[in-house]
From TrEMBL:
Organism whose genome encodes this protein: Sphagnum troendelagicum
Protein name (Swiss-Prot/TrEMBL): Wound-induced protein 1
Domain of life according to the entry: Eukaryota
InterPro entries (UniProt xref): NTF2-like_dom_sf, Wun1-like
Source taxonomy: Eukaryota, Viridiplantae, Streptophyta, Embryophyta, Bryophyta
Length: 107
């Protein structure tokens, strides 16, 4: 997918270096950076029967994953919406992420 999305020539090499991996239920969230500065990736794998059955790939996009199930209200915390953050990419709050698009995924 990277070659199709970025237009990198097939003779060029590309290294994906994972910087965080987290599994939640049947989803695996992998965030990484490319071999060139400014290239960031998030892969979201759906696993079934110990096999990856779906792959979502996001390029230079900050990702926030939330659960829409209502959370217990906490009188000490002001919340704008009744959801819980399950995972967020490091780009979400980084200086580099401020100029990149953000995406909120709900599961």
């Amino acid at each position: 997918m990277m070659r199709l999305l970025t237009g990198v020539a097939s003779s060029d090499t590309f290294a994906f270096e994972p910087i965080s991996i987290r599994g939640i239920a049947n989803k695996v969230f992998v965030e990484g950076k490319g071999s060139s500065p400014g290239l960031y990736w998030v892969h979201i794998w759906t696993v079934k029967d110990q096999r990856i059955c779906q792959l979502r790939e996001y390029f230079n996009t900050a990702i926030l994953v939330t659960d829409l199930k209502p959370v217990k209200p906490n009188p000490h915390v002001i919340q704008n919406h009744p959801s819980a953050t399950l995972w967020q990419s490091q780009l979400w709050k980084s200086k580099e992420g401020r100029s990149m698009p953000g995406l909120i995924l709900t599961i």
